């Protein structure tokens, strides 16, 4: 038996012919397992969706309650039998509710990790390596040049800037699901206790995080605040909003952006970012390698991102390795469509942090 008999790439995403289901399909399918609620992985229109409670809630929040015909929640460590395939959910450490799915059938085990990171994140359950024969990994930051610094050190840069420029608003671009709440939690963990102002697109998701027990402190809608309130304040908004009309209400802001791509100075410059914060929800090069090794896999499949370098590393390390060239999965910014910058209460339909 080959692993491809259990799971294989298809034009709609990873497909399990034995259980007749897809993982993070890019088009509507009868049965989908969804690793997390970012819009490049969680799409509307599926017949049945299996995901963690948090992912299902976030999907409903973003796409409306009727995004799927039926939903079923699975907790971390829980297993289900789907057409003879044993499916187990494990934490991926990417955003709240993010899961890896381990598939076992006839002694063959494959782990589809979705997006993941092994770095500290107070807003979600930490990544757990799962033993398997085949590990399926993304490679958003799959080049040796990508080594993310400690998020706490990047947070300290923001706090330091607030001290240096106490009269300027600090406008932080952060993707609305996951990154924005992580920045808030990192600020709180560093002892910052002033109210944090948010763009309307972040309000509902942040409220949901708080409801699930993630301490984000006092959050205020930026739309309701007088201009004077923004002096020396932190304002968090979707990346697109920090450079558009919306940002003009803030006098002389310090523009920051929290993304793994901020490691690339040219990207920060292109975006007019004064204060780049290298905070990523994806594993860096060392993280990808450590995670792969920790699974004990004999084969690595790479879904998207900088596939070649990781596949090359795996080959040199004695693993079977193949790039899957899967399309439809974005990254933290350039390849993902920009988020709408309006203050509409509707949650933006896309991001990938
Ligand atoms: Zn993601």
TrEMBL record:
GO molecular function, a single term: RNA endonuclease activity
Signal peptide residue numbers: none
Database matches in InterPro entries: MBL, RibonucZ/Hydroxyglut_hydro, Xnuc_lig_assoc
Location of region: Disordered: 328-353
Compositional bias per record (Low complexity), positions renumbered to this chain: 341-353
Domain of life assignment: Bacteria
Alphabetical list of NCBIfam families matching this protein: Xnuc_lig_assoc
Protein name: Putative mRNA 3-end processing factor
